Amino acid sequence: MADATPGETLVTLLKAWNEADPGARDTILDEALGASFTYCDPNAPAPFEGREGMAQYLSIFRENLPDAVLLVTGAPMVSHDTAMAYARLDRSGEPFARLIFVGTADEGGLTRLTGFVESE
């Protein structure tokens, strides 16, 4: 995604939360992540490093919340190499949590993503 803005790259990565197929998720990660990448959120025991770490986190997420759907709510806000997007997590068609994602990118893709979760 060398020509994509940080906001576009962030939205691409957030699609991975909804992808049940691990192979398709890996394709999204390959498209969105830079060579070096770190993911942090309050529900993770520690930051996840690299594409493999993110893939592992998303597999755990899908196993624990198979009925969850992540919906980006509005266009991301972008400032230089950083993008922020609001999202909502629905379970069984009902709002479950509100989220904020802040990502930093370079020409290779996202290098860091931090997610913040708030219960609905």
The arrangement of helices and strands along the chain is HHEEHEEEEE
Mean pLDDT: 94
CATH class identity: Alpha Beta
Query: Which CATH-level-2 architecture?
Result: Roll
Strand content: 35-45%
- Sequence stretches where pLDDT stays below 50 over 5 or more residues: none
The beta-strand count equals: 7
Could you describe the largest sheet, including whether it forms a barrel? Answer: 7 strands, mixed
Distance between the termini: 33 Å
Radius of gyration: 13 Å
Q: How many separate domains?
A: 1
Output the CATH topology: Nuclear Transport Factor 2, Chain: A
| Helix content class | 25-40%
Strand-pairing-aware structural class = alpha+beta
How would you sum up the global shape? globular
How many helices in DSSP terms? 3
InterPro entries: NTF2-like_dom_sf (IPR032710)
Organism: Jannaschia ovalis
Protein name: SnoaL-like domain-containing protein
Structure commentary:
This protein is α+β, with helices and mostly antiparallel strands and 120 residues long. It has one domain: Roll (Nuclear Transport Factor 2, Chain: A). The chain is 29% helix and 43% strand. A hairpin with a 2-residue loop joins strand 4 (77-79) and strand 5 (82-91). Helix 2 crosses helix 3 (50-64). The chain is globular, with a radius of gyration of 13 Å. It starts with 5 loop residues before the first helix and ends with a strand.
